[in-house]
Structures are given as structure tokens and as C-alpha cells.
Amino acid sequence: MTAYLIRRLFAALMLLFVVSAVTFAIFFLVPRLGGQSIDELAVQYVGKDANPESVAAVKKNLGLDQPLIVQYADFIKAIFVGAEYKFGPDASTCDAPCFGYSFKTHVEVWPEITQRIPITLSLAVGAAVLWVVSGVTIGVISALNRGTFVDRLAMTVALLGVSLPIFFTGLLGLALFTSQWPIWESVDYIPITEDPGEWFWNLIIPWCSLAFLYSALYARLTRAGMLETMGEDYIRTARAKGLRESKVVTKHGLRAALTPIVTIFGMDFGLLVGGAIITEQVFSLQGMGAYAVQAVKDSDLPIVMGVTLVAAFFIVFCNLIVDLLYAAIDPRVRYS
Amino acid sequence: MALLSVDELTVTFGARGRESKAVDGVSFDVDQGQVVGLVGESGCGKSVTSLALMGLLPDKGVKLGGRADFDGNNLLTMSRRELRDMRGSQMAMIFQDPLSSLNPVVPIGIQVTEILQRHRGLKGEAARKEAAHLLDRVGIPDPARRLKEYPHQLSGGMRQRALIAMAVACAPRLLIADEPTTALDVTIQAQILELLKELVDEEGTALLMITHDLGVVAGLCDQVNVLYAGKVVESADRHELFAHPMHPYAHGLLESIPRLDAPRGEPLKPIRGSINDRIAWAEGCAFAPRCDYYTMECLTGTPALTEPAAAGHQVRCVNPVREPVEIATLDAGDATVTAHGGKNA
Looking at beta carbons, which residues of chain B come within 8 Å of A240? Predict the structure, then answer.
């Protein structure tokens, strides 16, 4: 078990390295191959009113004149031990984990990211709770009432949920509940540390919109799984023991249908924590997704690198958790 | 009065107009401490009969007819709740494939304790102790460790033992075993049969044994009902059936058993055709298309169960076979059945 854990952790770490290398290559190597000179890159950092001296200084300070492999090594080193940058007369220290400074605002990237993670995390966690509970419940009810009106209604709503994009349902929700029936004045992010009640109240519409999209998928997934497991021989055994139907369904049917749901959940959740781009845009939440979109628009490479790596970290981390959970969910999966 | 008395049980599947009768007027009794066999090939309705008795058939698309009195109460008209209370406590069932009949993601211990909690109200440590005791009772070594394990960690024989432990957990008065040895290899089969026999002898449980294996019947059953196409075609006491099978189907089944002492090169004697070879009309004997003895009479009227030779030996055939089958000695456990061959009869 311990050996397995170490192996998986090591693999996850290697994966993150690969992701960082690929991201670095995409943003620093590919433009170079496409004909972008180092000067042009430096100009991006300096800004429009660049003069040759400042460009040269930036090139030297950011190490842009170094070979790419050295730059990559420096980038990784900075994440672990921090870095020092000299801008003209004054030097500044960027503590580990250092993802450098924004090209545009010259603000350190890492503190900006840590500021935004709670927003995205709030959005993702709340929505996840909502969609797992509702999706699985609807899926189970549908499966048990297969072919009836309830099943068809649920699956039609599920189809709507999967088909309707979040920028439609989200905006519709906003339009209905902030102007048509103004239950909410507006949707603002209030940190949970400041006012848990307000935090909760403000996130209800974003949560519901996001959960609607995902719960539809989970309802279908659960339904399919339940239809399969409820036809298994061990369900008959459970009934032959005289167990109540609710016990048969939850302890035997759902329990066995859980594996694919948990797998997909690990991926979905990890992906979402990396940035719920559209949802954050729709509700003007300044989370990771919004940050990433802005950075890409501005070709702000340090931010793009930072956000990508943090997002990758969450996905890898969630999948690691899922892998470890497998032992509990499906004992047939052995650590070997 | 018999513990279980099944009278003219019919099970019909399908919607109106496209109905098919899986069980067609089956009657038999099972007494306390008695082992009764339901024998027949796949599709003859033996499993459906057992599921109907347990109330495990789906509600939709299934019509039940006749009576099945368990201790004087008709199982077929009981409410779902009443049946649920009976299942596992008064009557229990052992299934065919022990691997698929156990939940792969739930530890054995929980699968045993849940029935103890349901019917005997045992919880926590008491339930665990009793579960370990039950596993020990059915011959699973190191029961405390096995309780924590999952079905895939047990061998096939142990899985079936675990299922038997669950079935006998609440000391049911009737045990239904639906081909409990089919998925096991031969040595394990013998052990499982031995265990069932022991349970019947010690606890006085009634056992309804559903099987297609005549070896199992010979070793275990007191009374045998041979089913064909949803009907009992022959019903007799074990010795009587093996000595004088009278229905051509039962006769054919016994004759088709390969003999070790047969001369080299002698062909096997199978029953020709399959159970799907039916006559296209409702009246008449379903076995007629495969029968070596059929006459025009077989195709016109449904033969009734009669007792043409001995009392208690019922046959549903207008041309019962009178000659005994020459079969090898069937030896299983301590019950030895020797059928009388033609030469020394």
C-alpha cells in the first residue's frame, strides 16, 4: 500500500513535469519556431514605449537571452526555491513558489493565483455537492422506474441539461432572479471567511447553473449503471434475504454502480477547480478561469504558465485521490 | 400436513395475447426434513417455480396461478411485506453461480450480518460473532479473517459455502437450492452436497433441490419430480424412479447417462431434439416430438398424471415405458442407488 502510494505520487509528479515542459514549449518554443524574435518577446514585457536599452535590460534580467533549456530550468527552479529579478536599480525577490511576474501588470503571479483559487474552489465544491446528490438521486429514481413517465421526464430534463450551454442557463438564471423576480440584487463573491451566509446566498445561482449541466450527465451515468447492477444475480440474493428494497437499492445496487461515477467525478472536479471559465465569465467571478482567459488574451505568458500548471496540479491531484479511493470502492482493483 | 404444498402452480410471462406459460400446473409437497428434487433440462420451468415460491419474480408481466401453501399460508397471495419477512427467515434460497450471486464490492461479513440484522436484530459485535460462527458451521476455515474478505478472494467452493451460511443464518424451515453445484468442480460438488445433507439431517430443514444432475438426485433426494415444458411428467420416490422410470423423458434421461462399464465404442443414447421442439397446438404431450414411443393419442389430448404401476409413482404419459433402464450404479455419498438392470431383474 505504501509502496503503491509512493509510486503513484512519483508518477503524478512526473506527469506535472511533463505538463510544465509541454506548456513551456508551447508558449516559449513554438513562437520562436514561428519566427518570433527574443526582442519581440521582451517588448511584450516592457510595453509599447520600449526603447532598445530597456528591451536589452529585460532580456538580460528575465534571462530571455539564455538558451530555452536554461530558461526552463530557471522556471522550474523558481517554483521550488524562488528567484531574484533585477529591474534597473532595484532588485525584487520572488519567493517560492515563484511563477514570475505578469508581463502586463508586473505583479507576481503566485499571490494572484492564491487569491483566485478560493473563488473557483467555492464555485466548484458547492456545484459538485449539488450535482452529485441530485444527479445520482435522479439517476436511481429513473432506473427504478424505467420506461415510466417519471423516467422519461427525468431523462428529457437531463438531455436539456447536457445540451444547454452554461452561458444560456446561467444568463437565464441571472435574468430571471435578479431582474424579473429580483430575489438577488446581484451576484457577487463574498469570501466565506468574511460572511458565510452571504457567501452561500450569492453563489446559489452559479451553483445551480453549473450543477444543472453536470447533474444531467451524472443522472444518465447513474441510471445506466443502476440498470446494469439491478439486474445482477447478487441483487436477487439480497432480495432473497428479505432485505428491504431501499437497502437492496442503496447497499447493493448503488454501491456497485459507484465506480464509474467516482472516476468521472474525479476528472470533472479537477478540471473545474482549474477554472470554470464560462461560468466565471457569466457571473463575473474573478476566479482561475477568468484569470486564465485574460492572460491568454494579453499573451501574458507567466500567468498562462502558472494557471496551466496549477490547473494541471488539481486534475492530477483529484485523479490521484480517485485512484486511492478505488481500493475502497472496488476491492477487485488491487495495488500491484 | 406438508410444510410446503404446491398445488397446480402456473406462471405465465408476457402481455395478453403473447403469453407463454413457463410453469403449467405443477404440484408437489415438501415435508419437514425431506429432500424433494425438481429435475429437468434448461427451460423446463424449474427455476421459475422456485423464484415464484420465493416471491422473487418481477410484478410486471408475470401472472401466477394455483396455490403454494407454506405452513398453511398461500405464498402466492401474500403481500410483498409479508413475503419479505418470510424470505431469509422462514425460507431461504441458494443460487446457481456463487460468484455472481455475491456482491463483489461488499465484504462477506457484511453480506452475512445484514441478514442477521434484518431477521434476528443482531448488531455490531454480536452479529459479527454469529456470522463467524455460521461460516465455521458451513466449513469455512479461519472465519474471522474471511468475514473481512471480498468474494473474489474466496474459492468457488467457499463462496457457495458462504451463500449457504447466509441461507441458513436464520434457521429457515425450507431451503430452496437452485442448481447449487452447477458452477463448481466435481470434488467441490460432492462437498457441498454433503454439507446440504448434513444441514437437512441435523436441523430438519426441508430442502427443495432444483437440478438437472441425476447424480445429485440419486445422492440426496427422497422424492423426485421430473419436469418437462412446465409440467411434472413423472413423480416418484427416488428408488422407484431410478428402478422403473416410466415416462419416456425420464427413461431417456437415465438411459443417456454414460456408463463406465459399457463396452468400448458403444454409442451414447441421447434424447433427440431439444426442449424447443414443441407441437404447435396447446393440447397434447409437449414431449411427443422427441419421443420414441409416441402414438396419435399423444397429440390430441393432454395426458393426466396417473399411477399406472405403483402407488405414489405418478406418470403423465399415455404410453408409459414398462422396461427398466440398465444403468450403472449411481454412487454419491452414503446413499447408493442400484437400478435393476434387465438381466438380473
Answer: 54, 56, 87-88, 92-93, 95
